[in-house]
């Protein structure tokens, strides 16, 4: 596997993540269960898609998920500083930063999905 193959794979993975994000944020469900004016009830992981269940598997509240996303963004940028210096000798130096950015985006998409379609168990 060459560095070009890895770059292409990461580009395709990012494109897939963007496509999933578009579908999650723009495509609405056919039936909106909460338009009747009833308060949302926490149904904790009953109707959630698999990618949301995986992304929020050990997250108990919205604030925890947001903090994970913030930490992932900060860690990605902190790692990118030394990675820029050693990237000339180690071509995969930016891989942890890319993975942390993907994780931050995934947390953000999961939080957005739960905010729009479900409720958090602690009411946050």
Task: Describe it.
The protein is an all-alpha fold. It has a domain of 64 residues. It contains four helices and no strands. Helix 1 runs parallel beside helix 4 and helix 3 packs antiparallel against helix 4. The chain is elongated, with a radius of gyration of 18 Å. About 13% of the residues have low confidence.
Key features?
124 residues; mainly alpha; membrane; transmembrane helix; single chain
> Roughly what is the average pLDDT, rounded to an integer?
75
Strand runs, count: 0
| Radius of gyration, taken over Cα atoms and rounded to an integer in Å | 18 Å
Q: What proportion strand?
A: under 5%
Order of helices and strands: HHHH
Assign the structural class, choosing from mainly alpha, mainly beta, alpha/beta, alpha+beta, or little secondary structure: mainly alpha
